[in-house]
Amino acid sequence: MNSRTQISTVALGILFALATGTARSQDVVKIGFASPLTGPQANYGKDNQNGAQMAIDELNSQGPTIGGKKVKFQLQAEDDQADPKQGPLIAQKLVDAKVAGVVGHFNSGVTIPASRVYNEAGIPELSVSTNVKYTHQGFKTAFRLMADDDKQGTALGEYAVKTLKLKQLAVIDDATAYGQGLADSFEAAVKASGGRVVKREHTNDKAVDFNALLTSIKALKPDAIFFGGYDAQAGPMARQMKTLGMSIPLMGGETMNSAKFIELAGPAAEGNIASTPGAALESRPGGKAFAAKYKARYNQDIGLYTPYFYDGVMVLAAAMKAADSTDPAKCLAALAKIKYPGVTADIEFDKNGDLTKGLLTIFQVKNGKWEVVSK
User: Fold this and answer.
1) Does 138 lie in the same domain as 46?
2) Claim to verify: residue 209 and residue 191 sit in the same structural domain
3) Per-residue pLDDT tens for 20-34?
C-alpha cells in the first residue's frame, strides 16, 4: 500500500467515525400515528398523515435538542382501518415500538378501546375523536384536540330550531360511537329548544342505499334531516334525497364537512349544512399560510383534520421541550399544563384532557363550496 492509499484510507475512516458518531449522538424520538389509511375513510387518514408528517419535517428542520441531546423525530404511521377491533392491536404495536406519544386515532369507536392500552402503558394520546366518553374514562393519558359531540350536537340542534326555525326534524345515525353520540346530542338539543324529532333511524357506516329509509321519512314531512356519520354515506344520502324530491337540507357534523361530500353529492350538495368543532382555519393566525403551504407540498386542498394532526405532533414536541425529556411520564405532566398557540386553536387542556376553549363553526354549501354561516 503506497502513502497516498494509506492517507485515503485514514481519511475515509475518520469520515466514517464522524458520521457514525453523529448518528449515535442523535436520538430518534418516535411519535405514533393511527388513522384509517385504507377503506372508505382513507381520504381522512391520508390527509391526517400528511399533516402529522409536515409537523415532523418542520421540527427536524429546526435541529431540535431535548435533554441536552440532538433528537430526530420520526413518525410511525399505522392503519387502523376505522375498525374498533384493530384499535387495541394497533395501540399495542405502537406501545411495543416505544413511541413517546401518539397522535390518533381518528374514529371514536376505534379511539376509545385503544385509549385503554395507551393508558396502561402511560403513553400520551392526542385525538380528534369527539365522543364524550373518550376523555371521561379517568385516563390521564387522553387529550382531545377539538370540541366534543355534546358541544357540537347541542350547537347544531339549537341552530336548527332557533336560527333556521326548523320545527320537525328527522335524525339518522350510522351506529358508530361517533355518529350515534353526535345524533343523540343533536336530538336532545332539538327537543330542549322546542323542536320535534319525528323519526330516529339507524344505518351503518358501510351503507350507500338509503332509498327505503328516506321514503319512510319523507312521508312524515320533516323540515330537515340530521345525519350522524361520515361523508361516504352523507354524499349518497343527499343525492338520493334530491332524487326522491325532498327539498330539505341535510345536516351533519364535521365528517360531512368535506370536499368528498360535495364530490359524492354533486349538485345535491347545495344548501346542506355541517359544523366543525373548531374555528374556521382562515380565521386563525397563520391558518391561510398553513393551507397554502400544504397545497404547495401535496398539490391538493387541505383536509379538515389535517391541521389538527399537525397541531397534535407540535403539541407533543412542545411538551417534551417543556419537560426537557422524551420520557412519556414527564411529557404527560407537561401536557397537563401546556399552553400552545396552534394552527387550529390556542391549545390548553382541562382536568379531563378536553380543550378549555372548544370553538364551533357552522358551514353551508354555497355555489359548490363550504362557507361559514355561523360561529
Assistant:
1) yes
2) yes
3) 444 445 799 999 999
